[in-house]
């Protein structure tokens, strides 16, 4: 009897697109594009693997609880997830894909550095609550964290927050909304994550994918 395929959890967009070369390095092609398909479970041209499409923030949950054997998630997502769900995930490889940076951004004309020096209490809008809280605590800056799930750039424009903590790639969205990057918190890339039980029970089947992904990501570093 044929074994059921391994399940890889991915999110749409940049991570999916930049994972395709890694899958190709493992000898796997994906015939369907999740941007044009309504399917949430995508077959591949290999009987050994299928892909499930989930929200980026949900990838670690699907992997940790065994609904997916492995997945790819940004360090930003993993940092937030592990604060509430420690353990259960093995993170063997930094894939060097979907690179960006986690930054503090503020409206043009707002003197962020002066506010920090003067000990002002800042209102910070972000969905990266743990990262923001740790960053400002390390600087000794008092902040009120306002958790948002999207349209972060709007918060300072309408007076909801003094600044935001968000991911920045090209900076185009910030510029379009008259915001400027005032501080970098950390560089972000995406990691391969593996369910620890799957690694024990299905290690022989998973290892070729881990090896191929590792070689491909090293070549891109």
UniProtKB/TrEMBL annotation:
The protein's UniProt keywords, in alphabetical order, are: Amino-acid biosynthesis, ATP-binding, Cytoplasm, Glycosyltransferase, Histidine biosynthesis, Nucleotide-binding, Transferase
InterPro entries annotated for this entry? ATP_PRibTrfase_cat, ATP_PRibTrfase_CS, ATP_PRibTrfase_HisG, ATP_PRibTrfase_HisG_short
Task: Output the Gene Ontology cellular-component terms.
Answer: cytoplasm
Q: Is GTP-binding found in the keyword set?
A: no
The pathway it acts in is: Amino-acid biosynthesis; L-histidine biosynthesis; L-histidine from 5-phospho-alpha-D-ribose 1-diphosphate: step 1/9
Q: What is its main location?
A: cytoplasm
Which Pfam families did the record assign?
HisG (PF01634)
Task: Give the subcellular location.
Answer: Cytoplasm
Cell membrane as a keyword of this entry, yes or no, is no
Q: Which transformation does this protein catalyse, written as a reaction?
A: 1-(5-phospho-beta-D-ribosyl)-ATP + diphosphate = 5-phospho-alpha-D-ribose 1-diphosphate + ATP
Q: Give GO BP annotations, semicolon-separated.
A: L-histidine biosynthetic process
Q: Output the Gene3D superfamilies linked to this UniProt entry.
A: Periplasmic binding protein-like II
EC assignment: 2.4.2.17
Q: Please provide, alphabetically and separated by semicolons, the GO molecular function terms listed in this UniProt record.
A: ATP binding; ATP phosphoribosyltransferase activity
The lineage's top-level taxon is Bacteria
Self-association and partners: Heteromultimer composed of HisG and HisZ subunits.
Family assignment?
Belongs to the ATP phosphoribosyltransferase family. Short subfamily.
What's the entry's take on its domains? Lacks the C-terminal regulatory region which is replaced by HisZ.
What NCBIfam families is this protein classified in? hisG
Known role: Catalyzes the condensation of ATP and 5-phosphoribose 1-diphosphate to form N'-(5'-phosphoribosyl)-ATP (PR-ATP). Has a crucial role in the pathway because the rate of histidine biosynthesis seems to be controlled primarily by regulation of HisG enzymatic activity.
Its name, as the record gives it, is: ATP phosphoribosyltransferase
Query: From what organism does this protein derive?
Result: Castellaniella defragrans (strain DSM 12143 / CCUG 39792 / 65Phen) (Alcaligenes defragrans)
Q: What is the lineage of its organism?
A: Bacteria, Pseudomonadati, Pseudomonadota, Betaproteobacteria, Burkholderiales
